[in-house]
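If it is no trouble, can you show me the amino acids of a protein and the tokens describing how it folds?
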Amino acid sequence: MTHTTDISVVVPLYNEEESLPELTTWISRVMQQHGFTYEIILVDDGSTDRSWEVIQVLSKENSHIKGISFNRNFGKSAALNTGFKKSQGNVVISMDADLQDSPDEIPELFKMITEGRLDMVSGWKKKRHDPISKTIPSKFFNFITSKISGIKLHDFNCGLKAYRSRVVKHIHVYGEMHRYIPVIAKWNGYDKIGEKVVEHRERKYGSTKFGLERFINGFLDLLSIMFVSRFKKKPMHFFGPLGTLSFLTGFVIAIWVIGDKLYRLRFDLPVRDVVDQPLFFLALVALIIGVQLFLTGFLAEMMAMKSNTENEYLVADQIGFE
């Protein structure tokens, strides 16, 4: 389906009341200068300040501004996912609300999607205004993610990204997986992914909402998304070989222990009770683990056959949507 709106700008936010008027004015100015039809979707992720009140005022002043308010803080992934599903533009732009992403990048991002025939363009904050305690771990995880996923990007976690509409409609972002949207997109068949160097501006209002723990969580999320992406529809391909290996190992050890005892009895050699041998218990554990892995695989296969139902985030209020 062809949309009449050129660009949807999705902005997840949490306690950003000071930056919203300047951000929306800037975005609108860029859109008008380039003649784009547009909408700005502000997703308030359970802010505890006056962010929602500010959004309501801005929406009344500018019909292009739409707002969604969660009844509590669900996280950036939930905010992005909800904004994506509500978007109506041919191209969807995501950006942070803290004014560190420049709306002046939007026209070039739009051009790369529409004329470059890309599914997605990820921003690269080549020159960052962050302390070394954030930049070094960030570079490390970006390098690891690039190697594991096979996607040649320098900055997976950049909030400024552009997508073809069908991409955001066909992916589901949950938990803390917003860091790995390029990986999710690739595993859903959208592998035409580009990159653009973008400006990283110093924070003007408020303070960062993320600490160093995000890098630990980020690594665990990467392992999770790679596992789910590879084995979501064929979990037995993961659990089956492990279960087979464990069961066969236990079976072979058990046969050896029993065979050894029978041999000794046959030739009147000294005999140890089976339960006195550590190998017997090792075989028993391996057999049990093997069976458990098989059962896990079968249960996972049954669950995979069912229709996947997406999580719904409780929206307390929204404005600007029909």
The CA atoms of residues 125 and 198 lie 5 Å apart. The radius of gyration is 26 Å.
